[in-house]
Amino acid sequence: MTLQRIQGARLAVTGGCGFIGSHLVRRLCGDGARSVVVIDKMKYGPAPDLPAQAQVVPFTLGADEGRGLVRHLEGVEAIVHLAAEKHSQERPDPELVLSSNVAGTQALLWAAAHAGVRRVIFASSVYVYGRLHGPPMVETELPQPRTVYGVSKLAGEHLTAAAAAEFRLQWMALRYFFVYGPGQHRGTGYRSVIAKNAERLRAGQRPTVRGDGRQELDYVYIDDVVEATLLALLSPLSGETVNVGSGQATPVARLLDALAAAAGAGAEKETLPADWTAGTSRVASITAAERVLRWRPRTSLADGLARTYAWLREKAAAPSPEART
User: Fold this and answer.
1) CA-to-CA distance for 213 and 281, rounded, in angstroms?
2) CA nearest 18: which of 108, 81, 79, 78?
3) Is 180 assigned a catalytic role?
4) Which helix H or strand E contains 175, and what residues bound it?
5) pLDDT per residue over 20-77, tens digit each?
6) 264/299 Cα distance (integer angstroms)
């Protein structure tokens, strides 16, 4: 049965203490969910400030016994599976990525099916495509991931489809592009150009750019990503794979100009040597999102960066928990 509405529903979010997950959990609770089971390995410390309906279950997918999840998922109608060991250029750990993202996803799907969950939204990634150049990426093209993380996310899509066929689950895969917004910290998830350079601007330093800054990425604001995920939860469709991005190519140099404007700083940058990103372009086609989810992003880059920088400024000004005790 299709999930009819969020209000009164019992839902689950893996990775619900992370950047995207915590925003999603707050939105689900705000929309009247009866309860949200938050499954998270708590890698980055205590749970964030979540609403009372959120029930945090410390659990490491791929390491803890997956069958133990069944009791936590009983009565849950739908799951958004965000938990994953993220892509890292600096400290790659292929075994950990595969254990968490492949074995962990399989364990979650088994537990979900045996607990009676009927719908799963799988958070996939731009990294499944593999290519670094060319036109906007379309869901129908052949994925050719070049990283273990990308391979693990593609495997997760296939595992979800296989579980759906075996256990009659409804499912959808959302390929997130480069998500940004308040609550994103440097070091949690991929190494964000926005988070790193916002911190530099706060410290009175110039933002840094690699090479000529013409490398292009698709930046999509967190609130828009949450909205797309919510629509996927409520969609009557199953078996769809959908990009979630802005559909706009933003050169890093232009991004940093906009970030500096949000900070009220000058646009002068510090140029570092070019790296592997030189000349790359990773942008989503969002035609399928418009058709399947009736979704388009609403937040402009300027507005999103302004909100992100304002959050960072407020966070820096707030007293530490120790100072409040």
Assistant:
1) 11
2) 81
3) no
4) strand 170-176
5) 999 999 999 999 999 999 999 987 666 778 999 999 999 999 999 889 999 999 999 9
6) 20
Pairing of strands 250-251, 216-217: antiparallel
- Residues 212 and 311: their CA atoms lie apart, in Å, by 29
Return d(Cα 277, Cα 215) in angstroms, integer.
Answer: 6
Q: Residue 242 CA to chain centroid, in angstroms?
A: 14
Question: In terms of Cα–Cα distance, which of 88, 220, 217, 87 is closest to 154?
Answer: 87
Residue 124: what are its φ and ψ, rounded to 5°? -100, -160
Residues forming beta bridges with residue 17, ordered by sequence position: none
What is the SS3 assignment for 108?
helix
Query: Exactly one of 149, 180, 219, 221 is catalytic; which is it?
Result: 149
**Domains in the chain, please, with CATH?**
10-179+220-244 (3.40.50.720), 182-218+248-284+298-316 (3.90.25.10)
pLDDT digits 0-9 by tens, 147-182: 999 999 999 999 999 999 999 999 999 999 999 999
pTM of the model: 0.94
Can you spell out the DSSP letters for 215-228? Answer: -EE-EEEHHHHHHH
